[in-house]
Design a protein that fits this description.
The structure is a homodimer. By secondary structure, chain A is α+β, with helices and mostly antiparallel strands. Chain A has helices at about 10-20, 25-30, 115-125, 125-150, 155-170, 185-195, 200-210, 225-230; strands at about 35-40, 45-50, 55-60, 65-70, 75-80, 100-105, 110-115, 180, 215, 220-225. The first copy, chain A, starts with 7 loop residues before the first helix and ends in a 17-residue tail after the last helix. Chain B binds a DNA duplex through helix 7.
Chain lengths: ~250, ~250
DNA sequence: CGTGTTATTGACCAACATCAAACTTAGTGG
DNA sequence: CCACTAAGTTTGATGTTGGTCAATAACACG
């Protein structure tokens, strides 16, 4: 199967899974046969909400997505950032009730894939079941890493780390070049990722700019010193368990 | 199969899995046939270490266990607490290299179960594969919840929440009665769970005692006001996805 | 007993929060 | 194409939670 014949939507998923597992020709073909219903989601709209019991999973085709929870006390904690190719609600295959929400940080296009189709796929192709397992486990590894960041690192390190993570993941998926990435996320949202207020995020970003680790033009964050930024964030990509990390990481 | 014939070690695992999934007679029998090698682990010894590539999973038979990571800056973050019946390194079935460590908080007895046996089991019994999936997903849900705690809640809430969580899980497994539980964990370790210093943990515990939410006699924490403690911690057990929560939770 | 770990207390400090206002930017409709 | 608006960013002044350092007290255990 030459990839030219593959639908670009399905290709997104194949490309993503190939960053964390090794697929064969057969598996790629099977994924390409998945039924998908396209759907556009407005900025700041929930894709799945806390308490839902969805029957489909959402494959991100385009846009930035986050998983989060609102606290009784009014605060919000963002748990992870998701990029095209990710299925942020893959867990609904095995946990029927959502215990958090998924939101579109930008205007987003998703593909809805029925649980039945995905379960069937995993049933028939152990390699794909393995890939799903890995995806979920890497998800958990990201949560742990964020927990360590928020629990034990100062603001400057946390922010640097987050930028490193999103950059590496975007780059691995071919969504960012050498220079940096668009991180279309507000400082308040950054704060909700990192357990900080937007005010403190702002001041710390200025510090990172002053130290020439990053530059920001509007919402585009340009990485000026990749080594330095990794150092500043104590960033070690091991926890992402990438199969083929690009050189220089 | 009457449970009387089942080895108590295997029963621990069966009981645990039955808190998060529903097993049939056949599955219980298959679990009972799992090969296990018993091993004692000293207090404060690693069961698995960051960077290891183990060939077995560790079923906890007795004792308290934690997963953690050391940071370059010298700090430590604990990610989760594990009780008898848990398999804290289940993820090594699908992620070969450990990205964190597992430590015995108390003298602990574990059973080593070969990956091959577990993978075979999951292959032959979809219900068990499903249970493993759920276990890993619930693990991730715990990480998210801790992340929300550390990121967005003050010390008092964090501590109350942690006590609630461990109590509910211990009680569900039949390891704690109505009155409270042994939480054989130092205040420094509590701090490493919650992103606090031991000094602040100490002061906050005193506050919880003063408010009559808990009482502590040595290391035993007695819960004096279960409703109040849940309230103080904004504790909602949904994220544990228990199949049969006990009444009054 | 003595020794090492853990808990407790006190004095002081720093990182980050809060509150509030001004400024910038990107849309939007006339 | 400009004025208007809303959202996001930036700045300043001030407050508080929780950290740091250090000493003492309470245990646990051989």
């Amino acid at each position: 199967m030459s990839t030219a014949q593959v639908s670009p939507h399905h290709l997104r998923l194949i490309r993503k899974l190939e960053t964390i597992a090794t697929l064969g020709e057969e598996e790629r073909r099977a994924i390409d046969a998945l039924p998908m219903i396209l759907k556009d989601v407005a900025e700041n709209a929930d894709i799945v909400s806390d308490g839902d019991t969805p029957q489909d999973c959402s494959l991100i085709l385009d846009g930035f997505v986050a998983r989060y929870q609102l606290l009784e006390s009014g605060g919000r904690q963002i748990f992870s950032i998701h990029l095209p190719g990710d299925i942020p609600d893959l867990q609904t295959l095995h946990l029927k009730v959502m215990d958090h929400s998924v939101i579109a940080l930008t205007p987003t296009r998703i593909a809805l894939v029925p649980h039945t189709a995905l379960l069937d796929l995993a049933q028939r192709y152990p390699v794909i079941a393995h890939a799903f397992f890995r995806d979920i486990l890497i998800d958990a590894a990201v949560f742990r890493t964020w927990l360590a960041n928020v629990g034990r690192k100062p603001a400057r390190q946390r922010i640097a780390h987050l930028i490193c993570e999103v950059y590496v993941r975007a780059r691995t998926l071919g969504l960012a070049g050498e220079g940096g990435l668009d991180l279309p996320i507000t400082q308040a949202e950054l704060g909700d990722c990192l357990g900080l207020t937007s005010v403190h995020v702002n001041r710390t970003l200025q510090e990172l700019r002053r130290d020439n680790l990053i530059a920001s033009e509007g919402r585009r964050i340009r990485i000026r010193d990749w080594q330095g930024l990794q150092l500043a964030g104590e960033f070690d990509p091991t926890y992402l368990h990438l199969v083929r990390p690009w050189p220089g990481i």
